[in-house]
Write a structure and sequence with these properties.
The chain is about 80% helix and about 0% strand. The protein is mostly helical. Helix 1 packs antiparallel against helix 5, helix 3 runs antiparallel to helix 4 and helix 4 packs antiparallel against helix 5.
């Protein structure tokens, strides 16, 4: 079971890498006002959602302690990210502040995962 958990942690990290990588590739375009949400950002957020739910389930199945408040905060942040990216995914340009908000929330989600113990 531990191997399965580690596999899904790896997939979860790949999801956050896709989301953050998609954001970082659009930073120059954001400065010019032409940034858009690329498919990698949507797919990364969806990957994070699915693997996060699976990870909670696997940890609960093994009777590991799961900090439900931390998971709830991370889920809420991810749902906001996912909602913004999904709704604006077909727009040719996204407002700088909205695009920056998604980047900020993505980084906040990373720091919540790492620093909240």
């Amino acid at each position: 079971m531990d191997v399965l958990i580690h596999l899904f942690v790896g997939l979860h990290i790949i999801g956050i890498a896709a989301l953050l990588g998609g954001f970082l590739t659009q930073m120059k375009a954001m400065g010019q006002g032409t940034a858009r949400f690329v498919p990698a950002m949507l797919h990364g957020a969806l990957t994070m959602l699915v693997t996060g739910v699976v990870l909670v389930g696997l940890n609960e199945a093994q009777d590991h302690h799961v900090d439900t408040i931390k998971i709830g905060v991370k889920l809420a942040v991810l749902v906001v990210i996912l909602g913004l990216v999904y709704v604006k995914r077909d727009d040719e340009k996204v407002d700088k502040s909205l695009f920056g908000l998604v980047g900020l929330l993505t980084m906040a989600n990373i720091f919540i995962a790492v620093l909240w113990t």
